[in-house]
Design brief:
169 residues, 6 strands, 4 helices, elongated, alpha+beta
């Protein structure tokens, strides 16, 4: 969805190039390029290994104030064959962190986290229009019996209506 919004914004800005400076256009090209890389990497590294034949997004929420960070966040509850999956994404100044929890009823089946770091042009750190690449930094598989992992899942589940969570059986 973010890709679509940025693409739509970029296309509308292309139509008004008379009003935009070359710097603005270059910035939008960089944002679009980075967004495409991010979406591609998310699709290949997070979703493909656990994607199922039948999936249904029950609810998706973005920019939850309780989990406020620098660049935004999202939470998705997805019905899958094994029960449900909660996908969590945090966008920060230096990196992106994505978490996936698979559960059925109240039993956590698996949980993991992946982090991607931004690479910047020299002397332009923390400037998103100077990001040159997004690279995979780490993958962490969580112990499903760990109390902190279970507590995190419980907090994320609280973001979704009970009627949707009841479909995770």
């Amino acid at each position: 969805m973010s890709m679509l919004l940025i693409t739509m914004h970029f296309q509308s800005s292309q139509n008004n190039t008379n009003n935009k400076s070359k710097q603005d256009i270059q910035f939008m090209n960089n944002v679009l390029s980075i967004t495409k890389k991010i979406c591609f990497m998310i699709g290949l590294t997070l979703l493909c290994p656990i994607q199922h034949a039948t999936e249904l997004v029950l609810q998706s929420v973005e920019n939850v104030e309780e989990y406020k960070n620098h660049e935004g966040n999202y939470f998705k509850l997805i019905k899958i064959e094994q029960g449900c999956r909660i996908e969590v994404g945090f966008y920060n100044l230096l990196n992106q962190e994505f978490k996936i929890y698979i559960f059925k009823n109240n039993e956590l089946i698996s949980a993991k986290s992946k982090t991607y770091n931004y690479l910047y042009e020299k002397d332009y750190e923390l400037s998103l229009d100077h990001v040159t690449d997004v690279i995979h930094y780490s993958t962490e598989y969580y112990n499903v019996k760990n109390n902190l992992v279970e507590q995190s899942l419980k907090e994320y589940k609280a973001l979704f209506p009970t009627a949707y969570l009841n479909q995770c059986k």
